[in-house]
Recover the amino acids of this structure.
């Protein structure tokens, strides 16, 4: 425990002493990269975004699921087809990230490793694919990797949560998360949980494809989790509820969706987070070179569903505390 704290302190000091450095940890989040069932190929937007991220060199890249296009029920995809999809993903995404020596963290999506019994083979293949690609992360708890696991980077604790089925998590999963956050959470300034399905809905047509797990939310709240990242809904939205920023990711692959209460489909984007002394800044980067950002004012002020209301994060923080904003060097990095 002591050695981990010393190592993290040394890393933080090194970052803060670097010339012009302000951000402690920079994280890119990609999601829902897959195309049609069984396809081993990827749209040009995926390759362009990965190439640009390699240039931007975040401290960590997270995938919130749906990296391949499984979960076809009739007929089920064969093992050779599933493995070919993973070969395509690793060639397009994993290999360039690893070659750049950027840590890469994943969580299962319903098209990668659905927990429904019919897709047990796909889940087994997902486990095998990532068990052999375990390096690059500073694990706190890796016993359940690549499903439920925890790791650290600087002064941030990250937790992957296996959520591929609609509905509340199993009690055993609550217990695991509770124990991990209890054991390690207080050692860190920030705590981030990421999964595929969200707690609350964000987009039209997927209003019920959520965990809607309010016991999970109470657990997150009790342990001071700052950010909950999710995929599956194919649109960027940074919402706030019960002390937590729930951030839905835009897709990079097929099927951008419209946020609830709107008609316009979300742009394809990568989410960029910065954890600094000023707080946590969150942006969605768009364009061929990720040169643009999705403006907050273009997003609904709130998203309301039968499960609750998420308030757009900038509106919640306005007038309450200094709004977390990107650092100046972060803005400059996207203008060249």
């Amino acid at each position: 425990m002591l050695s981990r704290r010393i190592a993290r302190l040394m890393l933080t000091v090194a970052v803060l002493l670097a010339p012009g450095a302000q951000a402690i940890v920079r994280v890119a989040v990609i999601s829902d990269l897959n195309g049609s069932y069984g396809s081993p190929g990827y749209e040009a937007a995926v390759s362009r975004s990965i190439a640009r991220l390699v240039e931007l060199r975040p401290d960590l890249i997270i995938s919130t699921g749906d990296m391949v296009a499984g979960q076809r029920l009739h007929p089920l995809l064969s093992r050779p087809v599933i493995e070919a999809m993973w070969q395509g993903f690793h060639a397009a995404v994993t290999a360039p990230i690893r070659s750049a020596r950027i840590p890469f963290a994943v969580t299962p999506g319903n098209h990668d490793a659905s927990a429904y019994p019919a897709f047990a083979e796909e889940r087994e293949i997902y486990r095998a694919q990532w068990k052999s690609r375990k390096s690059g992360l500073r694990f706190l708890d890796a016993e359940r990797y690549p499903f439920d696991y925890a790791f650290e980077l600087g002064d941030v604790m990250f937790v992957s949560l296996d959520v591929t089925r609609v509905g509340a998590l199993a009690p055993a999963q609550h217990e695991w998360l509770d124990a991990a956050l209890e054991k390690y959470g207080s050692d860190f300034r920030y705590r981030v949980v990421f999964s595929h399905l969200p707690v609350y809905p964000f987009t039209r047509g997927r209003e019920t494809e959520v965990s809607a797990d309010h016991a999970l939310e109470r657990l997150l709240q009790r342990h001071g989790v700052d950010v909950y990242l999710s995929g599956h809904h194919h649109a960027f939205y940074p919402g706030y509820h019960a002390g937590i920023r729930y951030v839905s990711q835009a897709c990079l692959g097929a099927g951008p969706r419209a946020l609830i209460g709107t008609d316009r489909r979300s742009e394809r984007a990568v989410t960029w987070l910065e954890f600094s002394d000023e707080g946590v800044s969150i942006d969605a980067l768009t364009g061929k070179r990720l040169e643009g950002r999705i403006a907050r004012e273009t997003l609904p002020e709130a998203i309301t569903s039968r499960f609750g209301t998420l308030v757009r994060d900038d509106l919640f923080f306005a007038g309450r505390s200094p709004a977390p904003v990107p650092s100046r060097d972060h803005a400059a990095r996207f203008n060249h």
